[in-house]
Design goal:
The complex is a heterodimer of chains A (159) and B (823). Chain A has 159 residues and is α+β, with helices and mostly antiparallel strands. Chain A is built from six helices and seven strands. With 823 residues, chain B is mainly beta. Chain B is built from one helix and 48 strands. Mean pLDDT of chain B is 66; it is low at 193-223, 225-256, 504-701 and 703-823. Classes of the chains: A alpha+beta (159), B mainly beta (823). At the A-B interface, β2, α1, β3, β6 and α6 of A face β9, β10 and β13 of B.
């Protein structure tokens, strides 16, 4: 089981361009092993994704260079990993002040769930604008899909 | 889970290049293809390009759409179903799509923003099979995907997205030519309430499919709105609406409900009757009481089968006989003829063989079930007969105990200590042909004002006896209170009776709301439908009483044989009332064939389409008959308004037509010599409008050629302006008050006066026996004879024989040698 921040990608289906969470590129592999995943659309054309799959599948996913994993055990994470999380937060528009207010100065003392919920605070609707040939991101807003909903959907998908 | 909305389209129709009514193609989700079509009773795509169809109205926001998928899309092709999609340009909404990815039928869920898809969550790989059904259902922020496989629906995915929460369009699209879809359904999502209720009231709403799978014995005060919500029956009142396909569609009687049919022949004994013992020789049974009381029951009889005109209740056709020979507490509740009607009556035995009797006035001999209650006030002697919950008759009798004294033995007469039903107990009076059901005895005066009779009586603290007559076999019927002996059936006679009959009463009381879906009430409603029934086939069989609202769908009441009371609203669908309405039809009948057979009483509204009342309206049509062939045979009484289309009244109007006949061929084959007996208040303006005769007055004008081609027995108050009007008239006995101005207008004769001017050549070819008040100014206006006087100065004509007239252009060619001149 792992949490990732992954980008949205585009694929063609006929004349249509479909925007999809890049984790879907691994859906067949995940479901082949009776796994499941679900997402929360967050800001910056990114998705916060939980994957429940065997380690080999997770390792395959981890090799995707566009994916950023939120490690499970932050206490044991090295400085680079923790800084990487902080930088990811900042790259998605969260200020240092927001990070410190919510999580404090030291990410090694917070839990993975706290970090996940931090990433899930805000969402930003995106869609592919065929006329402009690019993804359009609308205004950021408070997230409407709770992290627990992701957990629930994965549980039900694995039944 | 199952769909909550009914089927929309089963595509069971001829192949067509478009999907047809209710569908709008090619204008939503940025898809312009319009090649979806009906093919072999399914929907498919006529070309490889993606095509789309939406329902023409919006649903939701909570809504659903589903279809069967007999054939999946081919490799690299897809199909999709959508909900909450709006507007039609730059559409937002939600979609479920099946995409064939190299043989893997993967399911995707999309949020659509301005025609552009964003996938929600993981695809469901290889998740569809041919023969599955798939549904997308948007409820709040949940987008549920449900699949039916092997007859079972299950949720296969849920996505949470609250971006679009507006009502929108539902529909489907497809790419490629491989897929086949069928049985589209959907619409507003109805939240299930769950639960079942079997024996008591449902005070709220039944909204979930299958929520009440079997029956509700009592009141459902709310609404049932989901498919199959009340799958079998509702024995009592449904206060709300039935709005979905299949509701009450299998209305089967779970409680065995029977009645007893009696045939009126006692075989010289006591056959075709039933009796209940009133005392055991020591004590009276509870139904035999010296107190206030109510006796009530259901009965059905035909006037034609019960013909006795009773001098008093003793000689009526008894419903129940409580007489004791020569004793003054005896009493009979029965039926008596009053003219053609069968009415209720009740009488009590008095001294010296007198029987004071009160009578009802309402005809109960219509073959329909009626509820009768008789209340007796022991203190005042007041008796009231209640018919179908309304006071029918009342009277005051001696205030006395009505009980049969326990242990008393009357030496004369038979069955004195029994209540006998459907036969005069002593064998000196009548039997009753008809049916009986639900007999209840009470020790109170249950009714003091109008009430709605219960379809099936219940026991309460004041019930002294209750016989449901629901055994269905055997020769006894049990008292549901357990306090009285069984009712005994005296079976015999020719025909042998009584016999058990199934009453099959499915929907026995009032449906006050709307039946809007096809097949919603598949069998019968014995009482009123106050509102509207608008779906085809909604009331397939019968409504025994009133339909207060409108019937607007084709095929409503298509097999109706009995529609005995009022239809207050309109019948707008073709064939809606295929057979008959026995009484009043207040509204309009506007579609062809709507009243295919008889309307026995009044049509106060309009009949606007051809063939609407194919056979007869026995009484008045107060509205207009405007279309050709609308009343093909006869109207026996008044038609107050106009008949304006050709052939509207093809045969006869026996009495008055208050309006005009303006179309050619109206009444053109009036076979009855007295076809139009009384009066045509308006004009006859169409050619051949009155093909034969009017025995009385036409107050208006006959202006079309040949409009009255044979005769008018009395006056024509207006003018005749068309050539050949009355072209074969041999008898025109009274007066033509206006002018005959066209050539040949009166081909033969007018027996009396023509008050106006004859201005057309050959206007009256033969004779006018009396007065011609106006001028005859053209040659040959009176070709043959002139039987009456021509007023001096008025006949501006000359006699060709004598040559003495001033005008050579004579109108009277052969008049000189005749009596008229001698006068």
């Amino acid at each position: 089981m792992a949490w990732f921040i992954v980008p949205y990608r585009l694929r063609q289906r006929g004349e249509r361009t479909i925007r999809y969470c890049a984790m879907d590129d691994y859906t067949r592999a995940i479901q082949a092993e009776k796994g499941a995943w679900d997402e929360i659309e967050i800001v910056g054309n990114m998705a916060l994704v939980k994957v429940d799959a065997p380690t080999p599948v997770l390792n395959q996913i981890r090799r995707d260079p566009d994916f950023f994993e939120i490690v499970n055990n932050l206490q044991d994470a090295d400085r680079d990993t923790l800084n990487g999380i902080r930088e990811k937060m900042q790259s998605l528009g969260y200020s240092e002040k927001e990070i410190q207010t919510t999580l404090g100065d030291d990410l090694s003392v917070v839990t993975q769930k706290q970090v996940v919920e931090f990433f899930a605070q805000r969402s930003q609707l995106g869609y592919y604008d065929a006329a402009r040939g690019e993804v359009v991101l609308e205004e950021q807003k408070a997230a409407t899909k709770p992290v627990d909903e992701v957990e629930k959907i994965i549980r039900e998908a694995k039944r | 889970m199952t769909p909550t909305a009914g089927l929309i389209d089963q595509f069971n129709r001829a192949n067509d290049s478009v999907l047809g009514t209710g569908w709008t193609e090619g204008d939503i989700l940025g898809i312009s293809g319009i090649t979806l079509q009906v093919n072999s009773n399914q929907a498919n795509n006529g070309s490889g390009a993606t095509s789309i169809a939406r329902r023409s109205t919006t649903y939701g926001p909570d809504s659903e759409f589903y279809m069967d998928i007999p054939t999946l899309p081919g490799n690299g092709e897809w199909i999709g179903f959508f909900v909450r999609c709006t507007p039609t340009t730059n559409t937002n909404g939600y979609v479920v799509e099946i995409y064939n990815d190299g043989g893997s039928q993967d399911i995707y869920i999309f949020r659509v923003t301005s025609n552009s898809n964003t996938q929600l969550g993981a695809a469901l790989t290889n998740a569809a099979q041919a023969g599955d059904s798939l549904m997308i259902q948007a409820v709040g922020s949940s987008i549920n995907i449900e699949r039916q496989r092997s007859g079972t629906w299950s949720v296969i995915a849920t996505r949470t997205d609250s971006t679009y929460n507006s009502a929108g369009y539902i529909g489907f699209y497809g790419n490629g030519t491989t897929f086949r879809l069928d049985n589209a359904g959907g619409g507003d999502y109805i939240a299930p309430s769950g639960g079942t209720e079997y024996t008591q009231s449902v005070s709220g709403t039944v909204t979930g499919g299958g929520a009440v799978i079997k029956r509700t014995n009592k009141v459902t005060a709310g609404t049932t709105s989901a498919t199959g919500a009340l799958v079998k029956r509702l024995a009592r009142t449904l206060g709300g609406s039935v709005s979905w396909v299949g509701s009450l569609s299998s209305a089967l009687n779970l409680i065995a409900q029977y009645a007893l049919e009696f045939y009126g022949d006692d075989g010289g004994q006591n056959y075709n009757s039933m009796s209940i013992l009133l005392e055991d020789g020591v004590d009276p049974y509870p139904i035999n009481m010296p107190a206030n009381q109510t006796i009530e029951m259901k009965f059905r009889a035909l006037a034609a089968d019960n013909t006795a005109t009773a001098a008093d209740a003793r000689y009526s056709h008894p419903l129940t006989d409580w007489d004791s020979w020569d004793d003054t507490w005896g009493r009979v509740l029965g039926l008596s003829r009053s003219g053609a009607n069968l009415v209720l009556c009740f009488g009590v035995a008095g001294v010296s063989g007198t029987w004071a009797t009160i009578y009802g006035t309402t005809n109960v001999g219509d073959g329909e079930w009626h509820d009768v209650a008789l209340t007796y006030n022991r203190t005042t002697g007041a008796v009231v007969i209640w018919l179908d919950g309304v006071q029918e008759a009342s009277g005051t009798f001696d205030a006395q105990d009505w009980d049969y004294p326990a242990g008393y033995v009357n030496p004369d007469g038979s069955y004195n200590n029994r209540a006998v039903f459907m036969r005069e107990k002593h064998g000196v009076g009548e039997l009753t042909v008809g049916a009986l059901d639900e007999i209840r005895f009470s020790n109170i005066i249950r009714y003091t004002s109008s009430y709605t009779p219960a379809a099936r009586f219940d026991i309460d603290a004041n019930t002294t006896g209750l016989y449901h007559l629901d055994e269905g076999s055997g020769t006894t019927s049990v008292d549901a209170t357990g306090n009285n002996p069984d009712a005994v059936l005296h079976v015999g006679g020719t025909p042998e009776g009584p016999v058990w009959i199934s009453t099959a009463t499915v929907f026995t009381q009032v449906l006050t709301a709307t039946v809007s879906a096809a097949g919603a009430v598949a069998k019968q409603t014995q009482r009123a439908i106050a509102a509207t029934t608008s779906g085809a086939g909604a009331l397939v069989k019968q409504v025994a009483r009133a339909l207060g609202g409108s019937m607007s769908g084709a095929g409503l009441l298509t097999n109706v044989r009995v529609y005995v009371l009022a239809l207050a609203g309109s019948v707008t669908g073709a064939g809606a009332l295929a057979r008959e309405t026995r009484k009043m039809f207040i509204g309009s009948s506007s579609a062809a064939g709507t009243l295919a057979r008889a309307t026995a009483r009044t049509i106060s509204g309009t009949v606007t389409s051809g063939g609407a009342v194919v056979k007869q309206a026995q009484r008045a049509v107060s509205g207009t008959v405007t279309s050709s062939g609308a009343v093909i045979k006869q109207t026996q009484r008044t038609m107050a308004a106009a008949a304006s289309a050709a052939g509207a009244l093809v045969k006869q109007a026996a009495r008055t037509l208050g309006g005009s006949l303006t179309g050619a061929g109206l009444l053109d084959a009036s076979l009855n010599a007295g076809a139009f007996f009384v009066e045509l208040m308006g004009g006859v303006t169409g050619t051949g409008a009155l093909g034969r005769q009017t025995q009385r007055t036409i107050d208006g004008t006959a202006s079309g050629a040949g409009a009255v081609s044979r005769q008018i027995g009395r006056g024509l108050a207006g003018s005749m302006t068309g050539a050949g009007a009355l072209s074969a008239s041999r008898l025109y006995t009274v007066i033509v008050a206006g002018a005959a101005s066209a050539a040949g207008t009166l081909t033969r004769q007018t027996n009396k006066a023509l008050a106006g001017v004859m201005s057309g050549a050959g206007t009256i070819n033969r004779q006018v026996r009396r007065l011609l008040a106006g001028a005859s100014s053209l040659i040959g206006a009176l070709v043959t004879t002139f039987g009456g006087a021509i007023q001096p100065g008025k006949a501006n004509v000359s006699d060709r024989a004598t040559g003495t007239t001033t005008t050579r252009d004579a109108a009277l060619y052969q008049a000189s040698a005749h009596d008229s001149m001698e006068e």
